[in-house]
Structure formats: structure tokens, C-alpha cells
Amino acid sequence: MCNFSGRLVAWMDRELSDNEAADVERHVRVCSECQGRVGAYGEVSRLFVTYCDAAAKGAKTRRKLPRWVPVLSSAVAVAVLLLTLRPASIEQIPVPTRAADASPAMVLETAPRPVKKVHRRQVTPVKTPQATWAFAEPFIQVAIPAEAMFPPGAVPEGLTYIADLSMASDGSIQGLRLQQ
Amino acid sequence: MSGDSLRLTLPFSCFAADSCEATNLYRELRKPLLRYLVCLGLSADEAQDAVQDAFLSLHRHLSTGGSQENIRSWLFRVAHNGARNRQQSYDRRFGKSLDPDLDSISGDATPEQIVLEKEKLRRLRKAMLSLTESERECLLLRAGGLRYREIGEVLEIPTSTVGDTVDRAIKKLAEKCDV
Fold this sequence. Notes:
The complex is a heterodimer.
Chain A: H1 8-12, H2 18-30, H3 32-63, H4 68-85, E1 107-108, E2 141-143, H5 146-149, E3 162-167, E4 173-179
Antiparallel strand pairs in A: 1-2, 2-3, 3-4
Helix pairs in contact in A: 2-3
Chain B: H1 3-9, H2 17-40, H3 44-63, H4 71-89, H5 111-128, H6 133-143, H7 148-155, H8 159-177
């Protein structure tokens, strides 16, 4: 191997002193081996810069998502929020008339149950044409665990629902309304 | 945050000589810095953040009367250290393999030339796996236009070591790529 091969890269990068650079330049003019090396090192250096540029562009393109992804994500997020934070939109849920048909998750109580006050908001009942029956004083409260109604994690911790029941004179349940 | 918004939010103006210097440095070095950080393994967004942090540090440095000597290597060193901190905080491996966008290579070349160029770049990518972290960093900083002395200041190694490292890395790549 030529003695000058160890200084070729530094010479190409203009890192040698003037005297050293002049020596290398004179040598390269007459040494075909070093000429080939200089060409190869120059090509590698050019390729390396091109590679870095392509890598930088690749990093940008990797971040790009289809336009519909953020739109769809936003729509799903809004829908989930509406479903979880607006229980008043659930106007009426049919309830079996017999206690035996009730879901195991529903626990009937005969006395008003103290409701947890934490994070509780006062919600004004929404009157709709379907809600033709009127509520009197609450007689019975039904405690429904949020886990039984929504997927785990969908409802913030501490959120409580109150069910108002409409009962006929014979004791049968005619309607149920949830409120937060 | 994108680089364009950085230009708007940074209080760089030419009312003072220091700020004017910072503005010029920003125009000159933003892209090389971004490219360097991305090639180190940061994502595009993380690299943007690291560059922004580096220029904010530069602004503070200059406004408090800091030295302007070797300011290019100072800026690269701040960005380099910021990138290392981000990598460590995110518990990611430093210097992960890059994924270049080879389809971006076009220009005025013919289709045959483009195919050949892509093949060369694939060989280079393979060859880069044989480089040590120090060799890769030296080459990246060299590709960013830094002199050996500046590279040594960024990586905190002697200039002669930089020369040896660059020489060794270039020879490795030339041999593996068979150019």
C-alpha cells in the first residue's frame, strides 16, 4: 500500500498543512493507485451525504399519516365523550316488571341511598316528547355499577348515576330515567 | 414545532449584533443540524425540538455575553448532548439503523442511474452497520460541514483522533461498498 494512503482523506478534506497538502498533491498526480483511492473516497463521501439527506426525508415521511386518520380519531373521541359524559341523552330504558328478570348488576333498594358527592354535577332533566310520564318524589334508587354499562376505563372514576323509577299503583315499574 | 414557526417565535432580530449572528447561524446550520440529529436516530419531531432547544441555548448564550469563538461546534455540541439526553430519557437505543427514503432520489438522473444510485445506497446502508458509534458520528459531523477541529470539540476528542477515525471509517465504507 502506498505511504500516502493514510493522508488522502485528510488531504481531500483540506485538513493538511500547506506543505503536506502540496506533497500529497504531487504524489497523487503520478500515482494511479492513489488516484483510484481518491475517486473511491470521494464517491463514498458523496454517497454518505446523499444517504443522510434520504434518511432525513425518510424520517419526515414516516411521520405522515393519511388525512382521514386524525379526522376519524377526532370523531371517535367526540362520540365517546358524548356517550360517557351526557347520560341525559339516555331518556328511557325499559325495565322488566318482575324483579327476577332484572339484571344481576342491578340492586334494588327500598330506602334512599346516600350518594357519593365527589365529582357530582347537577344536571337538569331534559324533557322530550317521549317522556310523557311525570316523576314524583324519588322512592327507589337503583345503583348500577358503571362497569356494567360501559367498557372499563370509559367512565371517569367517581362518576355516579341515579335512576328515577316511575311506579304504578300496583307496584309495577313503568319507566326508568338515568341522571348523573 | 416546525422550523418555520421557530423562526417566528425566536426573538432573533438584527437590532443587536449578537442576535444577527444567531439569525445567520440559524439560516446556515438549521438543516445540517436537523440532518445530523435525524441520522443519530431521533425522529423528525424530536430533532426539530432538539434544534429549537439548541438555538434557544445559543440565544441565551449570546445575550449573556458568551463567547462567539467556535460557535458552530458549540451549537452542534449542545444539539448532540440534547439528542443524547432525549435518547436516554426515552430509553431508546442510540444510533439505531436509519430508514432512508430512497424514493426521494431522483433529480435529473435517468432511470438506470437512479437504480444504480439506490443500489449503491443500499450497500452503503449495509456497510454502515460495520462502523462504530464514534466513526458514524465523525462522518455525520463531517457531512454537516464541520472541520476536524470542530468535530473534536463536539465529541470532545482530539483533532488527530478525528482524522484517524474519519480516515478509518471512509476506508471501511469504500471497501464494503466496493466503489
